[in-house]
Specification:
Blueprint: E1 4-5, H1 6-14, H2 16-24, E2 33-34, H3 35-55, H4 62-76, E3 81-82, H5 90-108, E4 115-126, E5 134-144, E6 150-156, H6 164-169, H7 172-184, E7 190-196, E8 201-205, H8 209-232, H9 256-265, H10 274-317, E9 321-323, E10 327-338, H11 346-357, H12 370-378, H13 383-389, E11 394-405
Parallel strand pairs: 1-5, 2-3, 6-7
Antiparallel strand pairs: 4-5, 5-6, 7-8, 9-10, 10-11
Helix pairs in contact: 1-2, 3-4, 3-5, 4-5
This protein binds iron/sulfur cluster (SF4).
């Protein structure tokens, strides 16, 4: 079975299709790196350099380490680095990274909080006793403290730091703790430490033995889910704001038509593409339908007003029928039984059904409908049902107008 990493599993959770592109098909992509990832890598390299010097007995001054950062930025920058946010430039990101380093340096100087025993350490993580479910991870820094506690340090360049509660549930460093404990053997206590370097914020958390066992079980279940998806080839696309940073966008069925349009637009003789015209046609029909619906609603409201006027006119003159040029309106005063309906009075409707089910007449109401019930209630034998339903059945009076072709002209 394949070896998993936390980010590999995270990719599946975020978008199974991206997982398929990246880890199943290993689809080559255009050389692409988001500027956020680029900035993160430069900050990581600089802090690695800093601690590498410290553990070799040299505390570099701040300017040295900032110069190192600037050099790494310049050396590694390429056209493959992509900036998605339109209001920001490469220099803005570069300055952000520099500020992160300055803040970190001033916060932790002279870097003697612990003994850095490992930098960028790769740890194997075995989740089960048989060694079937394996993961691997890279720890930014492992410190051994004077009281024997090991600290797993992780640098984050995200804009907004998460809450303490979120970090107490975080899986990544807890998985690294599992690997670290196996790697070093006798480890009394491990502390997980995140450095949110943009905000100059440190978040700490610890895990109990039971929490680590539960995490092992959860990750095994997650790996089993991925393996099952691989067998059934079930990798649906899952759209999110992360699509903006996805290197597989031009291949993804959700977005690739956009790229096809752009590509054709750049051709001297673009190939025909029915897609935009069809979508535009559908959109204008949807607008037209909405306009007609609004007009229909207006006409309905006007008809109700005219019907009310006809009823009033009929009452005044004691007419039951009023004649127009080629149509006649018949006005009736009706008394009708009303029962609760599923749409308008769900609670009363369910109460009514419960009562009806107790009645011997329920069998006669097979394929129940309000119309059928009202029909039974209107018959003399329906009295049993009327008594049973009590206040749930209402007798309502109303005036109605019906319009048809003049009878005297037929
Ligand atoms: S563009 Fe979005 S939906 Fe498509 S593969 Fe990438 S993350 Fe998934």
């Amino acid at each position: 079975m394949a070896t998993y990493s936390h980010s590999k599993i995270g990719t599946f959770e975020t978008c199974p299709l991206k997982y398929k592109f990246k880890y199943v098909d290993r689809t080559p992509t255009e050389d692409f790196e988001s500027v956020e990832a680029f900035l993160g890598s430069r900050v990581h390299e600089t802090l690695e350099k800093l601690y590498d010097l410290v553990r070799n007995g040299r505390i570099p001054d701040e300017q040295f380490i900032l110069d190192y950062y600037e050099k790494q930025w310049t050396t590694n920058w390429s056209d493959a680095v992509r900036i998605v946010k339109p209001d920001l430039t490469a220099d803005d990101y570069r300055a952000t990274g520099r500020t992160c380093i300055e803040r970190y340096y001033r916060h932790y100087h002279p870097f003697n909080q612990g003994l850095a025993v490992a930098l960028e350490m790769q740890v194997p993580i075995t989740l089960d006793d048989d060694g079937q479910y394996k993961m691997t991870g890279f720890i930014d820094r492992v410190d051994k403290m004077s009281d024997g506690v090991f600290e797993i340090h992780d640098y984050k360049t995200n804009q907004t730091p998460p809450s303490q509660e979120e970090k107490d549930q975080d899986r990544q460093l807890a998985l690294y703790e599992i690997g670290l404990r196996d790697y070093f053997g006798e480890v009394r206590q491990v502390e997980l430490v995140w450095h949110y370097v943009r905000a100059d914020l440190e978040i700490r958390s610890r895990r109990t033995g039971q929490e680590l066992e539960e995490l092992r079980a959860k990750m095994i279940a997650k790996i089993q889910e991925i393996e099952a998806a691989t067998v059934t080839k079930n990798f649906p696309a899952c759209e999110s704001r992360l699509c903006n940073w996805c290197e597989y966008r031009p291949l993804c069925p959700i977005w690739k038509h956009l790229y096809a349009i752009e590509e054709q637009a750049a051709q001297p003789t673009p190939l025909p593409d029915d897609g935009p015209a069809l979508v535009n046609q559908l959109a204008s029909l949807a607008i037209k339908r909405k306009e007609l619906q609004t007009q229909a609603d207006d006409v309905k409201a006007q008809m109700e007003q005219v019907e009310a006027a006809i009823i009033e006119f009929a009452k005044q003159h004691d007419y039951q029928r009023i004649f127009g040029a080629d149509r006649q309106a018949t006005v009736k005063h009706v008394t009708e039984l009303k029962v609760p309906t599923k749409t308008n009075q769900l609670d009363e409707y369910e109460q009514m059904l419960a009562l009806l089910r107790q009645s011997p007449l329920w069998l006669e109401l097979t394929d129940f409908s309000s119309a059928k019930l009202k029909d039974m209630l209107g018959k003399p034998e329906g009295k049993v049902l009327r008594d049973l339903l009590g206040a749930l059945v209402k007798q309502e009076e109303e005036w109605r107008v019906s319009l048809r072709k003049r009878k005297d002209e037929e």
